[in-house]
Write a structure and sequence with these properties.
This protein is α+β, with helices and mostly antiparallel strands. Helices cover about 20% and strands about 40% of the residues. It has one helix and ten strands. The protein has one helix at about 5-25; strands spanning about 45-50, 50, 55, 60-70, 75-85, 85-95, 100-110, 115-120, 125, 130-134. Strands 3, 5, 6, 8, 9 and 10 form a six-stranded mixed sheet that branches. Strands 1, 2, 4 and 7 form a four-stranded antiparallel sheet that branches. A hairpin with a 2-residue loop joins strand 5 and strand 6. The longest helix has 25 residues, at about 5-25. The protein is elongated. The N and C termini lie far apart (about 95 Å). About 15% of the residues are buried.
């Protein structure tokens, strides 16, 4: 087949494909007035609660922080954070969130005085819980 005939054939096929696609696009009925409005629902905001099992402990005495997680996938790890100066530092105490959304983690603290603690899962944090170490 010579070059001119090939170009003509390819051109004819391309035009028919483009025309067929356009015809299909124009053939679809478009009733803009009957369209239902699309309402996007925002996902529920993630939240954590936290409660310490005690208000005061001796240094290195174990206690628990328990709470619930809403809008957080089961199995996601929640980590205990302690305020040290002006920064929140993650402690090596973490636990996964249960299917029910509940969690409970064992904690031991050695810094004497009032300790401010919170739970964190990604950017979601709980309210601050205070535990005094004597």
């Amino acid at each position: 087949m010579n070059r001119a005939l090939r170009y003509a054939t390819v051109g004819a096929i391309a035009v028919s494909l483009l025309a067929g696609g356009s015809a299909a696009a124009f053939a679809a009925p478009q009733d803009l007035h009957a369209a239902q409005p699309v309402v996007a629902t925002a996902p529920a905001a993630a939240s954590l609660t936290a409660k310490a099992s005690v208000n005061s402990v001796k240094a290195w005495q174990e206690f628990r922080i328990s709470g619930t997680a809403k809008g957080i996938t089961a199995g996601t790890k929640v980590t205990v954070q302690q305020k040290q100066g002006t920064k929140w530092v993650s402690l090596p105490a973490q636990t996964p969130v249960a299917k029910s959304g509940a969690y409970s983690v064992r904690v031991k603290l050695g810094i004497k005085g009032a300790n401010q603690l919170r739970m964190a899962a990604g950017k979601t944090v709980s309210p601050v819980v205070s535990v005094t170490v004597r």
